[in-house]
Design goal:
Layout: H1 4-8, H2 14-21, H3 41-63, H4 72-91, H5 99-115, H6 123-130, H7 144-176, H8 185-236, H9 242-285
Helix pairs in contact: 2-8, 3-5, 4-5, 5-9, 7-8, 7-9, 8-9
Length: 288
């Protein structure tokens, strides 16, 4: 299936249409989920564009900020900055010049990632096909490579803060002396392998859960929009009948309701990723 119009004309099934929209513009065919030889050009492109949009907007507002009554855009940016700063102050009790800017970047960047899901599913792919591109996915957070890369960055910062605040011995002790403790030194030495296995599972689960939570929710949201688009296909192919117009009206109403609900989801997912990042870094910076 090439596009929504082609599908309406009978060029393929609904399954073909959905599968077509699930393919990235890639360098080659991936041989697995984590095939690092594959580059998803569309994910890289939209990630960079959205990063530049985020940076450009905040830089422009900062340059034009006034001490008097702020304009609407400045007021909106100040609300976001104050909100993120409040979350950091409530959770991270150490001193760091990185945590607040990092949290702000994560929240805004992921929100922009997710917001791309509200663009009609066939709009940008049709434009891309007009310039000769066969596939195009416009939502970076529906690419597991993007979500895992962001969570892996957070994971490396967790290790960095753990080593910085607790030292190498303190970091190793945190992984080997908890959760089971014994007063007897010999018994504690026997518990070290058990503690290390349990703590390692918890420690390594952080980047995996961060990436999969964001990916799963946005992938599911995208699938709902694609299913609603399939409902449009059925309506277009049967406009000569009452059922066709019924499907079109139902699709519009369902898409409107889901878009409003999905706006809450994309904001919530960006917020969760940001808060968990702050929590994990706060735990890494704490001394036990």
């Amino acid at each position: 299936m090439r596009s929504l119009v082609a599908a309406a004309e009978g060029g393929g099934s609904a399954t073909d249409y959905i599968l077509h929209h699930q393919k990235n513009l890639s360098s080659n065919t991936a041989r697995g989920i984590f095939d690092f030889s594959v580059v998803n050009y569309d994910t890289v492109f939209f990630s960079v564009v959205l990063a530049l949009l985020f940076f450009g907007l905040f830089w422009m507002v900062a340059r034009r900020a006034t001490a008097g009554v702020p304009g609407r855009v400045q007021n909106f940016i100040e609300i976001i900055v104050s909100f993120v700063d409040g979350q950091v102050r409530d959770t991270f009790h150490g001193a760091s010049r990185l945590i607040a800017p990092l949290a702000l970047t994560i929240f805004c960047w992921i929100f922009l990632f997710n917001f791309m899901d509200l663009i009609p599913v066939d709009l940008l792919p049709l434009v891309a096909r007009g310039v000769g591109l066969e596939h195009l996915k416009v939502v970076p957070s529906t690419d597991l490579n993007a979500t895992f890369a962001m969570s892996l960055t957070v994971f490396l910062l967790i290790i960095f803060y753990s080593l910085k605040m607790k030292g190498v011995l303190g970091f190793i002790g945190e992984l080997t002396l908890n959760p089971f403790r014994a007063r007897n030194i010999l018994l504690q030495a026997l518990l070290v392998p058990v503690n290390f296995i349990l703590e390692s599972v918890t420690f390594l689960a952080r980047p995996i859960s961060l990436s999969l939570r964001l990916y799963g929710n946005l992938y599911a949201g995208e699938m709902v929009f694609l299913l609603l688009a399939v409902l449009t296909l059925q309506g277009i192919s049967a406009l000569s009948h009452f059922s066709g117009w019924f499907f079109l009206v139902m699709q519009f109403l369902l898409a409107l309701v889901w878009a409003i609900f999905h706006l809450l989801i994309i904001t919530l997912q960006a917020f969760i990723f940001m808060v968990l990042t702050i929590v994990y870094l706060a735990m890494a910076a704490e001394h036990h």
